[in-house]
Write a structure and sequence with these properties.
393 residues, alpha/beta, nine-stranded mixed β-sheet, 3 domains, 13 strands, 16 helices, Rossmann fold, globular
């Protein structure tokens, strides 16, 4: 493909991402994967170049741009070589018209920036929220150790801030490695690993991952439990939960899966009421801590969505509390940096559940935030997380 054709392809892809963001549709990753799958004639170098342009354009635009062309013009405004690709060639974009306005640059919509700053994310950290993230993997203790894994990998890996974490350059195609097929590691951000480890799941316990999704944190819990005890993964999303059995088999983990019906979750969990040692609540949220990986998520957030996530989190915390035995515990995790989707919800839970208390957390990275702990990309080099340990009397 010519450079101009790559730019036109990127415009088409960003247009699709904008449509999906408006309709709360598929992620940019999914859209790009489907687009390339339908165009197998596009070579690997062209794919990389197009993807880089798409993600650069998404990161450059704080508000949702009016079009993919406006987003690419934002990049072209600072890159004469890119601007020259708007040449009207057969497969390239039309020339830039006199007075044609690029999409505005920025971090996020103004109201969202204000919400971040009110939640303690100052302007000194804004740039890191959109940096390209490194790739972290978690050595699977059921199969190997971090040192043994590092010694056998085909590229050099640095120890990450979590006990089982190794850090690799962004874009490393680790899922093609035989070590991955053998279940020796999982891809998982180091901040996610540490937040999950805060639950301190132990061999022999009964543990529930209440919002398991595809099971990344479930498998980390399984490794902590060393194959001993009972681990139950739950979710209302059938498609995501369906991926877990194969992942668990590869990892050598024993996991029970339960799909829950929205609004009727308590019925499916009645047999566990008041008996569980520990519950992990990886709560649904807007994902403001993961913009490095999903920068288009900024375009999907509005005040109503945040209020909806907060209500869902309160519901899930209530469900979790009903499962826990006296003396048991919950670790509540959210990958949002907004207090409305984390710290505020924990405060409200404690105010309405007098037999629960927050347990202090101390880790080698991160900082206290309200009744919990927080990682941020700028301060800790991980995705953004808020999490809190809660204990029942």
């Amino acid at each position: 493909m010519t450079p101009a054709a790559r730019v036109e392809a990127a415009i088409e892809l960003v247009d699709a991402v904008i449509v999906a963001a408006r309709g709360r549709g598929a992620s940019a990753d999914r859209i790009a994967a489907d687009w390339f799958r339908a165009r197998r004639f596009v070579g690997s170098k062209d794919r990389r170049a197009i993807r880089d342009l798409v993600w650069q354009a998404i990161r450059a635009c704080g508000d949702m741009p009016p079009s993919g062309r406006a987003a690419l013009l934002r990049l072209a405004a600072d890159d004469p070589d890119l601007a020259a690709c708007f040449d009207g060639s057969t497969y390239g974009p039309a020339p830039i018209a006199a007075g044609e306005v690029p999409a505005p640059a920025g971090l996020a919509p103004d109201w969202l920036i204000a919400a971040l700053e009110a939640s303690g994310i100052d302007r000194g950290e804004h740039g890191a929220l959109l940096d390209r993230a490194p790739l972290d993997i978690r050595a699977n203790r059921l199969r190997t150790t971090r040192d043994a894994l590092a010694a056998m990998l085909p590229v050099a890996a640095l120890p990450g801030p979590a006990p089982d974490a190794l850090r690799l350059p962004a874009g490393t195609m680790v899922e093609r490695w035989p070590e991955f097929a053998r279940g020796l590691f999982e891809v998982q951000d180091a901040g996610s690993q540490l937040a999950c480890a805060a639950l301190a799941a132990a061999p022999g316990e009964t543990v529930v991952d209440l919002c398991a999704g595809g099971g990344g944190k479930t498998l980390a819990l399984a490794a902590m439990m060393a194959g001993q005890g009972r681990l139950i993964a739950c979710d209302i999303d059938r498609a995501r939960l369906a991926r877990l059995p194969d992942r668990a088999q590869r990892a050598g983990a024993r996991v029970e899966c339960r799909r829950l019906d929205g609004g009727r979750e308590a019925e499916a969990l009645r047999d566990l009421a008041g008996t569980v040692d520990a519950v992990l609540v990886d709560a649904p949220c807007s994902g403001s801590g993961t913009w490095r990986r999903n920068p288009e998520a900024r375009w999907r957030i509005d005040a109503a969505a945040i209020a909806g996530y907060a209500a869902t989190q309160a519901h899930v915390l209530d469900l979790a509390a009903g499962l826990v035995r006296p003396g048991g515990r919950i670790t509540f995790i959210t990958c949002s940096l907004l207090d409305a989707e984390g710290a505020d919800g924990v405060e409200a839970f404690l105010a309405s559940h007098r037999d629960w208390r927050a347990v202090p957390i101390a880790l080698p990275i991160g900082r206290p935030r309200a009744k919990g702990w927080r990682f941020t990309p700028g301060h800790d080099g991980t995705d953004g997380f808020f999490f809190a340990n809660l204990s029942r009397a």
